[in-house]
Amino acid sequence: MADALVGGAFLSAFLQVLFDRMASHEVLEFFSRLKLNNEPLKKLKTTLLLINAVLNDAEEKQIKSPAVKDWVNELKDAAYNAQDLLDEIATDAALYKLKAEMEISKNKVRSFNLTSRSSSYKGIELKIEETLGRLEFLAKQRDLLDLKEGGGEKFSQKRPTTSLVEESGVYGRDGDKEAIIELLLEDDGSGNNISVIPIVGMGGVGKTTLAQLVYNKKLVMESFDVRAWVCVSQEFDVLRITKTILEAVTASSGDTDDLDLLQVRMETDNSYDLSEKTRYFSYSRLKFDAYKKFEACLGAKGLRSFLPSNLSVRSGCLSKEVIFDLLPALRSLRVLSLSGYWNLTILPDSIGNLKHLRYLDISRTAIKVLPDSVCTLHNLQTLLLASCHSLTELPANMGWLINLRHLDISGTNLIEMPLRMDKLKSLQTLTSFILGKKGSSGLKELGELRHLKGSLSILKLENVVDARDALEANLSDKLQLNELVLKWGGDTDDSKKNRDVLDQLHPHVDLTKLTIENYGGTVFPDWLGHAAYNIVSIQIHNCKYCDSLPPFGKLPSLKNLSTVGLDSVENIGEGFYGTPTSGHRPFGSLETLRFKNMSELQKWQPFTDDNGGAVAFPRLHQLCIQNCPKLTMGLPNGIFSLKSIVIDKCQQLVATLPSAPAICQLKLQYCHKVVLNELPPQVLNLKISRI
Questions:
Q1: By mean pLDDT, which of 397-411, 470-484, 554-568, 657-671 is the weakest?
Q2: In this structure, what are the phi and psi dihedrals at residue 223, rounded to the nearest 5 degrees?
Q3: Residue 258: count of CB within 10 angstroms of its CB
Q4: Residue 45 and residue 310: Cα distance in Å, rounded?
């Protein structure tokens, strides 16, 4: 019953989406421009309105009437087909308009005839007629099924339930929950694979809630390959229950009313025998997935998803027949994941035929190049290419993917971003933006991507031609970014340009994490260390020309600071702590501090306060100093919160380890001048070697 009610409510909302799509400006303009007959489209809308008028009655009557339930199922399938058709029309309309704009922008107006391609779209009229015929047939059946407009007869039914539960609001059931889980998982040695555990009690005591808690327990989820939640009404119908269980497990509707056949199928069906009406498909991935495993998908032309389910097998091999023959034939696919197939080196050009595709995941594959046809996937919203190490370039027309929201290119070896990346104005996730030389997108294009959020790495900043372009990246306006990486590719001979670029790339003040690598300037800009910033973590790596550190001590939220490879820094002095003010506690939130590979560092001066007696690093837990061979003095005193100290390859360091009662880890290597007065009693991990 729950499935029926949810399905009916889904249809009501689904039809509303179809109405909106039919009335959209893009679709109407498309028919007008190509001089297509839009009368079938009007009839389609009228027919759907007739059907929609009796949906409420059908939703209720299908619970007791198999004929109405079959009608609703047929309607659901027809509605899916109608959506596919309207999506295809809207996609063609958008692509048509986009290509026209591209031609016009190239000053080829005269050679581009807006009606010259109309013949290739004439098949749309035929498809509309076919869809209309099917829906008109269903509309005529409404009188035969005695379906009334408006709400139908109200049945007194048991309230449907789902497997979802809000655990935070449940108290006092832990003992009962654990007892049932123990019964579920125990092996009684009888060899009986079926067990029934009744939960009895008065109405309202929480029997269903207890079952929901058990169903969603992680241990239970991991112990059973298949789980299904089926709501049983007061009318106990074995046939209906069996069909519902089968539908829940296979994600397809039962096409028979033979109870024995259904139950035999449940017992023996380990293959993918899909109904032609199946829309969503997931499978257990193996080390090698052969074509035969997926042959049944050819019969489900309306399939919308193709997803592996057991992610424990993270890599495998997929038959090339699946990639080149099967998948391009599934024209209704919305979701496609080929992630982890190590033998996937290329996608067929026919991937562009999947006009409805919204989600494409080919991460962790050996893909070397994406076909240009990917750029015709107008509806694509998510493209995942993470850890595709062989991928060195994106298609030239990426700017056509104007609906793209998420682009993950982390772990690839892209040389540069293609032109027109600024057209992707819906983009929310962009893991990296690689600057190339002439002929690629620059920082100006990045400025147009106003909705970026999460993490962004801007790489190869040495390729910036004009430092003024950095300001146009508008990083300060991208308020939803929380992590930023700014990275140069190597040595630079223009220190001033580097400084100007970094100065203009200042992010918004609530950035959480900042990483700067291979910066070629001699000084850091003023914004880096400004007290207005709430940065929590900073990494400064291989900025070998800078001779001083910014006043990081002024950052009120800074918890983690790592400086690595700053070869020109000789002295860490008062500037590191910030200008002293009354009661100011430099590095008041810092918990982890690391200095590493600083070949010229000689002195780390302690913080002194002549006013209020404030202490630096009041919350420091971890201090790590590695490979600073010229460092002679450091190790600030009075840091009683320290829990871990690592000093490695600091051969000239003359210092006494700070007294900190909470220290539990101590590692000293190649630092024979460091004095350890006493071993703190709480030390659990001690390593002293070659001192």
A1: 657-671
A2: -90, -15
A3: 11
A4: 42
Crossing angle of the two packed helices 2-22 and 66-105, in degrees rounded to 10: 30
What are the φ/ψ torsions at residue 37 (nearest 5 degrees)? -75, 115
Backbone φ and ψ of 347, nearest 5°: -105, 145
Helix axes 66-105, 39-52, angle to 10 degrees: 140
Report d(CA 481, CA 675) in Å as an integer: 45
Helices and strands (H and E) in the chain: how many: 16, 24
**Per-residue confidence at 188, pLDDT binned at 50, 70, 90?**
low
Q: Which residues pair with 455 in a beta bridge?
A: 483
- In this prediction, residue 266 carries a pLDDT of 44
**Are 421 and 401 a contacting pair, CB within 8 Å?**
no
d(CA 63, CA 7): 11
3-state secondary structure of 337: strand
Q: Where are the alpha helices (DSSP H) in 158-291?
A: 174-185, 207-215, 218-223, 238-250, 259-268
* CA 372 to the chain's CA centroid: 24
Q: What is the CB neighbour count within 10 angstroms for residue 483?
A: 16
Pinpoint the alpha helices (H) of 456-596: 468-471, 495-504, 574-577
- Spatial contact of 475 and 484, defined as CB atoms under 8 Å apart: yes
* Strand 513-517 versus strand 560-564 pairing type: unpaired
User: Which sign does the torsion angle of CA 456, 462, 463, 469 carry?
Assistant: positive
SS3 341: strand
How far is 379 from 405, CA to CA, in rounded Å? 10
562-596 confidence digits (pLDDT tens): 999 999 999 999 899 987 555 678 999 999 999 99
CA pseudo-torsion sign 459, 460, 461, 466: negative
Q: What is the pLDDT of residues 91-131, one digit of tens each?
A: 877 777 777 776 655 554 333 343 444 445 667 778 888 88
Residues 6+ apart with CB under 8 A from 636: 604, 606, 607, 616, 617, 658
Cα R_g (the chain), whole angstroms: 33
CB proximity list for 267: less than 8 A, separation 6 or greater: none
Provide the phi-psi class of 594: left if phi over 0, else alpha when psi is between -120 and 50, else beta: beta
pLDDT band at 691 (very low <50, low <70, confident <90, very high): low
* 432 neighbors 414 (Cβ within 8 angstroms): yes
* Pairwise CA distance, residues 285 & 309, whole Å: 7
What crossing angle do the helices spanning 66-105 and 123-144 adopt, rounded to 10°?
160
pLDDT at 243: 59
pLDDT for 580: 59
For the residues 25-46, what does the mean pLDDT come to? Answer: 80
User: Where does 147-207 show beta strands of DSSP type E?
Assistant: none
Residue 297: C-alpha distances to residues 357, 437, 564, 568 (Å):
17, 45, 54, 63
Task: Estimate to the nearest angstrom the gap between the alpha carbon of 364 and the chain centroid.
Answer: 15
Least confident segment among 225-239, 245-259, 587-601: 245-259
> In whole angstroms, how far apart are CA 23 and each of 18, 128, 135, 136?
9, 15, 18, 20
How many other C-beta atoms lie within 10 A of the C-beta of residue 58? Answer: 23
Read off φ and ψ for residue 19, nearest 5 degrees. -60, -45
Cα(405)–Cα(426) distance, rounded to whole angstroms? 5
Token digits of residue 363: 């991460």
Structure tokens at 468: 């003024």
Write the pLDDT tens digit of every residue in 480-494: 999 999 999 877 778
**Cα 257 to Cα 67: distance, rounded to the nearest angstrom:** 12
